[in-house]
Amino acid sequence: MNSNKLRFCWWNIGLSPAASRASSRASPENYDMLVEYIVYLFDAHVLDFLCLCEVDDDDFNELHNRLAEFKFGLCDLYPKTSTSRSRFDCIAIYNQERFEVTPQRVLEERVANTNIKVAQLICVNDLDNDSEFFIYLAHWPSRLYESKDLRRKAASFLWNDAKELINESNNVIFMGDFNANPFEDCLTDDLNATRCHEMCRYYPTQFIYNPFWRSLTSEEQLSLDNATQQFPSGTYYYKKDRKSKWNAFDQILVSSSLVSDGPWYLNEYETGVIYDENIYEAFSSKDSHIDHFPIICTIDKV
Asked: What pLDDT sits at residue 82?
């Protein structure tokens, strides 16, 4: 394992959605499949950290037991009770020989009669290099409801919380299912996420960098040889969408310190959506709870 390389992964697995009206897809068979995917991702992509989204207490306990033989660290991140119709729904799985993970705080704001689950902040300490990373984990309100304003509020709250960490030149990572594409106002205007490296370098306390603009278009390009195949782009497919079936809702963004200051630098060659064949097969199955692709972000140390 390369001690000067770190790989962070996010995956909305759709197992136990947070909305109170949603039902869990948990079953022994789905747990078996999920454990196989988790072990596969850590092995094939040499992961150091994986955040799973849309899980609950029962899922955490089941995965904790089933993954015990692999000696992963598991961190239960969400509060056990909630007075709203939703809840925080993330857990962290990590290489405990490499990382120490410490929950910091939960960001939840009330707007009128709605509780907005903004993010959960954790601190990850890389034991090999004595390097510290602050990671915000976010799952913002669904697009199935009129929630654009709530996502903009969530982004503003998140930026206001992260500013102090960014101003102090900490390495900050934002990962989540934002239910918004990279070009939408909540990300570009309210969270100040840009696709321009130079803006991050010239104004490091005013912008964060979003490498997932690149995921908006397919890695495949149309020609006569492949005119009938699918062209996946982004992480989520919604067949009823009237503008684009594919959306890049899942993204990992980084503070300007990881674009310009060093000693850790974003590696965009090894950052993007994981379209591995076995996961694509589950994604395409009507019987599977998998409806998002996982994403990965790699950073390298000088």
From this structure: 52
